[in-house]
Specification:
Blueprint (H helix, E strand, L loop, with lengths): L3 E2 H11 L4 E4 L6 H8 L5 E3 L4 H15 L3 E5 L3 H15 L4 E7 L18 H6 L4 E3 L7 H13 L6 E6 H5 L1 E2 L16 H12 L4 E5 L2 H5 L2 H11 L2 E4 L14 E3 L5 H7 L4 E5 L19 E5 L13 E4 L2 H11 L7 H34 L8 E3 L3 H10 L8 E2 L9 H12 L3 E6 H4 L5 H8 L3 E7 L4 H10 L14 H7 L3 E5 L2 H12 L5 E6 L18
Parallel strand pairs: 2-3, 2-4, 4-5, 5-7, 6-7, 9-10, 9-12, 10-11, 12-13, 13-14, 15-16, 15-17, 17-18, 18-20, 19-20
Antiparallel strand pairs: 1-8
Amino acid sequence: MTTKTGAEIVAETLKNAGVRHVFGIVSIHNMPIVDAISRLDGIDMLTPRNEQSATHMADGYARATGKLGVSLASTGPGTTNTVTGLYEAAYASSRVLVVTGQADSDFYGKGKGFVHEAEMQVPMLETVARKVASPRYVDNIAGDLKAVIEDICNGRPQPGAIEIPIDLQYAYTEVPAAEIADPFPVAPDPTTLTKAEKCIREARKIVILAGGGIALSGASTALVKFAEKLNATVLTTTNGKGAINNEHPLLLGAVLMSGPVIKLVNEADLLIAVGTRFQAGVGGAQVKIPLPPILHIDVDPRNINLNYTAKVGLIADAKLSLESLNSKLNDTAGDNEYNNQLLAAAADTRERTLKRVGPDHTSVLNSLSQYMNEGSFFVRDSTIPGYYWANTLLPISTPGGYITPTSGAIGPGLPTGIGVAVATGKKTIIMHGDGGFMYHVGELTCAAQYQIPIVVVIFNDGGYGVLRGLQSEKFDGRYHQTELYTPDFIKMAESMGVRGLKAENVTEFNSRLAEAMEINGPVLIEINVHNMEPMKGIVTAPKQAS
């Protein structure tokens, strides 16, 4: 009987799960796993500069591929660093696994001060991961890891974690690496499906709201057929951008928060929401919208009636649900007059948004839009241009191709974008503010080390622009602790092995972006927001002294 170490079982099980890249930092409590991965063909490890970054990279990798993204950490301080990444992955329904070490079994739980000892690591991880395993014997590693991976990938995707004591990583076992079963999507209940058909047949004015679940379940083609069959227009959430092609005549886009659109949607006979939990947003604004009767399709039963009461709640995989409805429903005429009113309201919303953002930001938008081809991904951090115009106006033609910090976190953009670029091998544009960029700035060295094809676009306004605006609104124009000293980003990037390009105005930005897209490896572009015409309603910061 062949014997292998616990670490080798981990590496081989990950490979069996389809993992081709692992993001992590070597430590005394995961060295055997690092060694096992390095000796295994078909799976590579990349070294970020922080375990939080590693977990965000795994998240980006998972969102771009729909497969398992893996972060490898050390017990204790390494694992505490992963928590923010797991928190974001949970918000985003992302298939992320954290593998971490643990103190030697003889010392675990005894509080003797063993280096990196973390007795409460499992309950800590359980606050941000759906399933956490902690094998006590080397023979349990394969089964426990299999259980965590299969939980991550089934139902609504959620992150998971496993801690493995260091002695078990070195120990030998005759139990082979686990084979990972393919995900089994949840099929719609026939009785509830019949109710869904009935409420669709009884409606004439129908609007569809497509969320991130469309990309997660691979339901884009089924959604397009469904919309065309019903002659129904399609709104998307931010995570749902790209659910149907940006040029499709029935697409309204991510414009639900527009007053005229809200008014018309509320006149519908039925809103069909697919793969969304109606995330509440800042101040709960998105759960205060008046909506018509809702047919809510979602794989997570907790999302049904969570923020809106559904007329019918169909708990099932989005793709299977839409395909089932497509097979049962006949083509309908819909209400063309109503559709045209919605399409006009959406177009008007985009026009008003363009006027609000002004000519300079419109110019930047147009430059970025040139590179949003089918198969392209765009990653943005929590930054003013993202909220004010990218969410609504940037064209996305890839399901799930618009990737944001779903939790509203500041800073994950750079490492998440690195994960996307590693997954796709394609040039990936990452939009950042200067404040959020500094959270993970060290990952420029990771991008340089592996020549990862990213273009980081930093909108430098000298501070936390989003918070500056929120403070000013709440406190009679006052804002505090939002102004930041920013380094010379170009010199800093070049010192880390990344090509740096400076754009003092939008004309220079257009040429710098074209140049960056032709450069192999990572590039950073800094644009001076102080030299751009301010967007309406934006609180601008004073220029820093040169």
